[in-house]
Structures are given as C-alpha cells and as structure tokens.
Design a protein that fits this description.
Blueprint lengths: L1 E5 L4 H12 L3 E5 L7 H5 L4 E4 L8 H15 L3 E5 L10 H14 L4 E7 L7 H6 L5 E4 L12 H13 L6 E5 L7 H7 L3 E4 L8 H13 L6 H7 L6 H8 L8
Parallel strand pairs: 1-2, 1-3, 3-4, 4-5, 5-7, 6-8
Helix pairs in contact: 1-6, 3-4
C-alpha cells in the first residue's frame, strides 16, 4: 500500500508518515509544489490523506482540487483532516473545513473524516518560554475546557483508518481522555497560567478563534479516539512528560 500525504512536511503530516511507516506502509509526502501537477503527484497512490495548510484562504477550493485529481488518476480512498467543531459560525477557518467536509462526503470516493481537537503539543513553545517566568501566557481564557489531544495519538488513529477496514463513511471526533484547561496544562508543568492580549497584527481568523475560546473553549470527547487506538488516549501528564523530557509533570 502507498499513501500520499498532502501537507506531509508539516508537523501533522510528519507524524502521520511516521505512524504509517510503523505499519509498514510507504508514504509520499507532498507539499505545496505538488499543486503544480496534482494528478501526477497522486498517481500510483492507493490512498491520500489531506491536510490543508493552516488558515488556508480557500480550503474548499484546495480540497476540491485534491478530489478532482484523485478521481482523475483513480485514487479511491481519501482521509480528510478536518477540525473539532467545524460548524461554528464564529470561526471562519472552521467553517471552511465544514464546507470541505461536505465536498468530501459528496465526492464518490471512499472517505473518512477526522475532527481532532487542539494538540497538547501546540502549547509546547509557550511552555518552554515560561520556564524562567513560571507563567504560561496565552491570548485566550485559561479556565475554559478543551479536549486537548496528543498529536501522536491522532497520527496513530489516522494510520488505523487508512490501513484497516470498517472506516469508510465515518466521521470521528478526536479528543483526549479528559477535558482540561490551559491552567491545568500549566499546573501539570509546575507553572501558573495567565491570559494576555493577542499581538496587534494577529490574523483576524485567529482573533475570532481566541474570542470563541474565551466564551466556550473547545470541548471534545475521547471515546472515538480510544476505540480507534484500542487503548486510552495519552493523558496530559503523559504527553508533557514525553515532550518536556527531564521535567516532572503531573496529570
């Protein structure tokens, strides 16, 4: 089996490629240059995993091009990397993924849609920056619930749905094993947390996301991910202990 991974050079794509390699599956990581001749880039692949660039200005157009190329060269299996809670009018980039999900469902391909929550790893740069001050700073509320998930668990689940039967036509929300707050993340790393203003030049879509997080967080459940993995998803403490090697972490 050979899987083309669009977005294969990003952190998610690299993790997916590593998870597939552990299953003995050959991967073809594809970046933006693949769109110069997308049918040629996908030719010969048995499946394609689609990860659009962050904050893509036209994700439905991006996904439409991938679907057309896959149909042209006979790639019948497709897994789309969406997002938790895509149907949120307050977050434009989430809505772009919701529209893209609809395109995937109506494509005629054998599809699966994954809706991961925010990765715990997304907070690693801020955690490392907080080592001297002892304060984790983020531009949104630190006391709202999130289903933060381990990137490596998401990658392992992606490998499962790409390589094993029974997942065609499924949509899976992928969250960690428990709801946590940013304050919980900070405490697990021996820090405190504080909300700070976003930079003045922040992308308006990101500011809209921060505003939504202030009011609602991004809660998700961990049951689908646990079912795909055949085990409990990694806990907050387990992820931080692995990623912040040498630092004592709790949770």
């Amino acid at each position: 089996m050979k899987v083309a991974v669009l977005g294969g050079s990003g952190k998610t794509g690299r993790a997916v490629g590593a998870a597939l390699a552990q299953e003995g599956v050959a991967t073809r990581p594809l970046g933006r240059a693949a769109f110069g001749d997308l049918p040629a880039a996908l030719a010969g692949a048995d499946a394609v995993h689609v990860i659009a660039p962050n904050l893509h200005p036209d994700e439905p157009g991006y996904v439409s091009a991938v679907l057309a190329a896959a149909q042209q060269v006979g790639v019948g299996r497709l897994v789309y990397h969406s997002v938790a809670s895509p149907y949120v009018p307050a977050m434009p980039h989430h809505l772009g993924k919701a529209v893209s999900e609809d395109l995937v469902r109506r494509s005629g391909l054998e599809w699966t849609i994954l809706q991961p929550c925010a990765y715990t790893q997304n907070l690693l740069p801020a955690l490392r920056a907080a080592e001297e001050s002892g304060v984790l700073e983020v531009p949104y509320a630190v006391d709202q619930p999130f289903g933060m998930v381990d990137l490596l668990d998401v990658a392992a689940a992606t490998a499962v749905v790409l390589t094993r039967p029974g997942h065609v036509g499924a949509t899976y929300e992928l969250g960690g094993p428990a709801l946590v707050t940013v304050a919980d993340v900070a405490a697990a790393a021996g820090l405190t947390a504080r909300r700070v203003p976003a930079p003045p030049d922040v992308h308006p879509w990101l500011q809209a996301m921060f505003d939504y997080y202030d009011d609602h967080g991004l809660p998700t459940g961990g049951v689908p991910l646990g079912a795909l993995l055949g085990r409990a998803p990694a806990s907050l403490g387990e992820v931080l202990s692995r990623e912040l090697a040498g630092r004592s972490c709790q949770g």
